[in-house]
Design a protein that fits this description.
Layout: E1 2-3, E2 6-8, E3 11-13, E4 20-24, E5 31-36, H1 40-57, H2 62-78, H3 80-91, H4 95-115, E6 122-125, E7 131-139, E8 142-146, H5 154-165, E9 169-173, H6 179-191, E10 199-201, H7 206-215, E11 219-225, H8 228-240, E12 244-248, E13 253-257, H9 263-275, E14 285-291, H10 295-308, H11 327-343, E15 346-349, E16 353-354, E17 364-365, E18 368-371, E19 388-394, H12 397-404, E20 409-410, E21 412-416, H13 420-429, E22 434-437, E23 453-454, H14 466-471, E24 472-480
Parallel strand pairs: 1-5, 8-9, 8-11, 9-10, 11-12, 13-14, 13-21, 14-19, 18-19, 21-22
Antiparallel strand pairs: 2-3, 4-5, 6-7, 7-24, 15-18, 16-17, 20-23
Helix pairs in contact: 1-7, 2-4, 2-6, 3-4, 4-5, 7-8
The chain binds nicotinamide-adenine-dinucleotide.
The site of nicotinamide-adenine-dinucleotide has 30 residues, from helix 7 and helix 8.
Length: 492
């Protein structure tokens, strides 16, 4: 069995007391690796190293930092297939999607490496003669990076790549369910020639290892992706220390299908968005808002499609939908299905933990479609994070917009319509950070800002140039070459 180690100051080290836990394949139950459980002291040591290294790393010219990131991108490309297979084994998503997850990391490496020769600031006129004004981007310090398990390569790359190319150092605590992919990424940093101490990896629980990142005053930034519950705790705990905090949290994303929609296209988009990654994407579609004129047809055609989805190990070509992340998740999803039934929704297809044949070895949930869901039901409001889709009937476009916006989250929305006026009204009125027209709710590209409104986060965005604003601090610089005292706002 693989024995993973922390990576601190360029060395692979055991956690204090050599405490360990297991990393399991959710499709088969097989143990993949033994994983360190870091103590508070281990994490404090990693922070100490990152804090010291920052003073050297911030002075390395950004194009040189970027050269390392270009090498990281090339190594990711070379290992794409191997990494994708490891990902499927570790967290279950089907191989096709695991390849996409690694590809996001490759795209992000080349995009962010380009920032090594940009990271644009600006010059601007000064109000006094013989005076020069400019705004520069400064690195900030140690970034504490805390990630979930559902995009075990993409999300760590969205955070670590901009952090380091812009001159920050990192302590990275990945999700307990996906340590292997985190280790593979850090191995690539090492092979690409990243100096010791720039990226440090600590495995362990959120409540023990993660907590230290929130509390330690030497950590200046917290970049967190995960659930709302933990996100609120992160915000308050790290907020006490006045850290800069980026929160990417849950979603309750909806696709609206209007009476003029291309239904074949809509059904493809809905199935892909609701059941891809077993419904465990933050952008997964979990509400389907359908115009009353096409509601029955859409329900019946979807039921036929959903009923045919094949559950199984994501490494098998015959599998459409892989396992959920663990047995606890399957149980939680099943509780929500029970809540939906009790609330009076109609279970059209699916429902229940799947235990036939080999499925019994893993954690599988039957792709599930509910109809007759009302917007005020819990299954229409709360994030389920599994393969469960709830259909809500609306009379018209305006009601669709209102229902879309009636939840506490605002990550991704989609609309299927052929009417250009409705498209532009949807662009104006849908409350979400991502909006898709005639496509499902998933499929973000890395050079655009990524994140959500309302309860999905705290207003920051990842990816694209928006990431630069989180990982740098603006410094306004005034150079007075008049040789006299010139007082802004006073001397004319
Ligand atoms: P989670 O909140 O349980 O865990 C996320 C990370 O936080 C893990 O690394 C965990 O160990 C750590 N953590 C837990 N308690 C902590 C504490 N007290 N202090 C510091 N760190 C702590 O989330 P999860 O189950 O891994 O991921 C699923 C959630 O992530 C879903 O809600 C999903 O919507 C969300 N998500 C959001 C986005 C987005 O960009 N908006 C993307 C992917 C996933």
């Amino acid at each position: 069995m693989l024995e993973l180690r922390n990576y601190i100051d360029g060395k692979w080290v055991d956690a204090e007391g050599n405490r360990r836990t297991e990393d399991r394949n959710p499709a088969t139950g097989e143990v993949i690796a033994s994983v360190p459980v870091s103590s508070k002291k281990d994490v404090a040591h990693a922070i100490d190293v990152a804090h010291r290294t920052f003073q050297q790393w911030r002075k390395v010219p950004a194009p040189k930092r970027a050269e390392i990131l270009f090498r990281v991108g090339t190594l990711l490309q070379e290992r794409k297939e191997d990494l994708a297979r490891k990902m499927t084994r570790e967290m279950g998503k089907v191989l096709l999607e695991a390849r996409g997850d690694v590809q996001e990391g490759i795209d992000m490496a080349f995009y962010m490496a380009g920032e090594g020769r940009r990271a644009f600031g600006y010059t601007t006129p000064a109000e006094l003669p013989n005076k020069f004004a400019m705004a520069l981007r400064d690195p900030i310090g140690v970034a504490g990076i805390i990630t979930p398990w559902n995009f075990p390569m993409a999300i760590p790359t969205w955070k670590t790549f901009p952090a380091i190319v812009l001159g920050n150092t990192v302590v990275f605590k990945p999700a307990s369910d996906t340590p292997l992919l985190a280790l593979e990424l850090v191995k690539i940093f090492e092979e690409a020639g990243l100096p010791p101490g720039v990226v440090n990896l600590v495995f362990g629980s959120g409540s023990e290892a993660g907590e230290v990142l929130l509390e330690d005053p030497r950590v200046s930034l917290i970049s967190f992706t995960g659930s709302n519950e933990v996100g609120r705790h992160v915000a308050s705990r790290a907020g006490e220390g006045l850290k800069r905090i980026s929160l990417e949290l849950g979603g309750k994303n909806a696709i609206s299908v209007m009476d003029d929609a291309d239904l074949d296209l809509a059904i493809d988009g809905i199935v892909w968005s609701a059941f891809g990654t077993t419904g465990q994407r933050c952008t997964a579609c979990s509400r389907l808002i359908a115009h009353e004129a096409i509601y029955d047809e859409l329900r019946d055609r979807l039921a036929a499609r959903v009923g045919k989805l094949r559950l199984g190990d994501g490494l098998l070509e015959t599998t459409d939908v892989g396992p959920v992340i663990n047995a606890g998740a399957a149980k939680r999803i099943d509780e929500y299905v029970g809540i939906g039934r009790a609330e009076g929704a109609t279970l059209v297809v699916g429902g229940g933990i799947a235990t036939d044949g080999d499925l019994a070895k893993g954690s599988f949930y039957r792709p599930t479609l509910f109809a007759d869901v009302r917007p005020d039901m819990r299954i229409a409001k709360e994030e389920i994070f599994g393969p469960v889709l709830s259909m809500i009937k609306v009379r018209d476009f305006d009601e669709a917009i209102a229902v879309n916006n009636s939840v506490a989250y605002g990550l991704s929305s989609a609309i299927f319509t052929q009417d250009v006026n409705r498209v532009f009204r949807a662009m104006r009125d849908l409350e979400s950070g991502l909006l898709y027209v005639n496509a499902g709710t998933i499929g973000a590209e890395i050079h655009l800002p990524f994140g959500g409104t309302k309860g999905t986060g705290n207003g920051h965005r990842e990816a694209g140039t928006a990431a630069l604003d989180f990982f740098t601090e603006w410094k306004a610089v005034y150079v007075d070459y008049s040789g006299t005292l010139q007082r802004a706002q006073i001397d004319s």
